[in-house]
Amino acid sequence: FMGFWTWVFIIIAAAVVIAIVQAVNTSKRKHEMESKLKSLPDFNPTQQVMGCDGNSGLAVDEPRKKICLITNNGASVSQRIIYYKDIFSVELFEDGTSITKTVRSSQIGGAVVGGLLLGGVGALVGGLSGKTETSGKVKRIDLRLIVNDTNAPLHDVAFMNVEGKKDGIIYTQAIQVARRWHGI
Q1: Is 126 helix (H, G, I), strand (E, B) or coil?
Q2: What's the average model confidence in pLDDT over 144-168?
Q3: What is residue 134's DSSP assignment?
Q4: Which residue of 19, 41, 137, 149 sits 20 to 30 Å from the alpha carbon of 1, by its own alpha carbon?
Q5: Using CA atoms, how far apart are residues 60 and 68, in angstroms rounded to an integer?
Q6: At CA 144, angle to CA 118 and CA 96, rounded to 5?
């Protein structure tokens, strides 16, 4: 019969194998989305980000003022290209709680603030309002776009999906990137 330490080793080895397989699958899914972006006609991404889970991403074509919302459901990669003006709001979530929200209150107001003052990607900027809740640990950070599309008005991109301390390196890096994309 196998001893205690043999079982511990088997369990740890199985966990490592599962983690490696998940990492490889996530990497493959991200690569598939990046390849799809490169093949889109009339869309040249100047900035892009793929979610940490490999399920979704965003790309911005600044000269054309377009955004590509890209999704990988495992079986296929789909994308939607929208114009800046079709974004109603952008929200940053920690563990399902909204911490920052940007709302495009009006087309003209957003264009004046974003387009004239900041130019390019800045045309996405609307008004800022938000609340912050404090907790020692966070399991998930998501960016949600609400767009002018009655069939699929939401597009979420995960920036973190593993528990991390708020003062830890994983959380700090994830929230930095998520806040940058919230600003864009």
Answers
A1: coil
A2: 92
A3: -
A4: 19
A5: 6
A6: 130
